[in-house]
UniProtKB/TrEMBL annotation:
It comes from Erwinia aeris. Residues 154-403 form the EAL domain. Residues 2-93 form the BLUF domain. This is Diguanylate phosphodiesterase. InterPro entries: Acylphosphatase-like_dom_sf, BLUF_domain, Cyclic-di-GMP_PDE-like, EAL_dom, EAL_sf.
Amino acid sequence: MLSTIIYRSHISDDVAYKTLGKLAEQANQVNESHSVTGILLFNGTHFFQVLEGPEDAVTAIYEEICNDPRHHNLVELMRDYAPARRFGNVGMELFDLREYDPENVLQAVLDKGTSKYQLTYDDRALQFLRVFVDATERENYFEIPPGDSWEFVVDREEALPREAVPSATADYSFAFQPIIDPLSRQIVSLEAVMRPTSGMSAADYLAGLPRSERYSVDLKSKQHVFAMAKQLGINGLTLSINLLPMSLAIVPDAVDFLLEAIHANGLVPEQIVVEVTENGTVFRADEFEAAIKKLKASGISLAIDGFGAGSAGLVLLTQFQPDKIKIDRNIIADVHKSGPKQAIVQAILKFCSSLQIAVIAEGVNKPEEWMWLESAGICNFQGALFAPSTLNAFPVVAWPEKLEND
């Protein structure tokens, strides 16, 4: 099976241009021995490479390329399959875009093609090539420093977490995790997530309850959250709570119940954010919509959690607009290395900007993820990089500090 991988990367500062010919020659020998072909473009700062050949060989060569110190900020743009090679003459040919007239450079590249079809058709790989040659998306090439250029430091004054006593009558407690603005060193919100004492996930715990009890237990558990938040002294912070969408629709007077519990613990509705998951089942749409209207009219905010993990997110946005969305952690993971994930994040940011919806990146575990997302325009983050979820306590945050160059 003929596999194709396309990537873009930035040449390292200590690589001399005069060595690029030798680099291409070495790549040519390795690729040819593995029946891998393609083309390597260079524009003075960035490489763009098309690798084509047997899937195992292409994957193995690409993994070696990822570990090559002669370039950095490597982004995989496409991984796909094709019926024929587009560039099949040599193991790898270096094409220096700077040596050609800008008006004719694209055609010069296309002339290197060996496909039996003209390389002007709507082929995805060739569209990526065209975009690189024409430099039409150069503003989206976010060049981030290495992850070890930052250290994450706990403020000594906050070295010990504030703790709360969970309910003695419930078979669950809650873990808390902050949502932060790292560069301004501000905690903007605190999320509370149910942690059953059995060790199972909250979703499995609730799913295991009889349907007649599931939504009532989900809703009433928030009484314990608000009581714990009062003990933790969240003051002016917002508090995010997770609810099954149908808890709002099925439990009678669900919003009134939440409001009473909020006021009973010295909080105000404007402090509370109700998070519903994108893939949460909504089977009584009219009741759910009525509950959302009442929720927002009371001052409680709404967020869609795990945006991008299900299939209902865009439909929900056409029906009602939340105040916040949280991009799913599976999209966030290694976003700095994935062209498709980067495109999705940028699209989310664009339509959220048009709708004035705040965006939060959840599940941020690596400095490179945070740096890329910050460069893309996200300000609020949640993840173990800054603070893990902490059971029955207000977590301690490790704030980023830039290391000085030697």
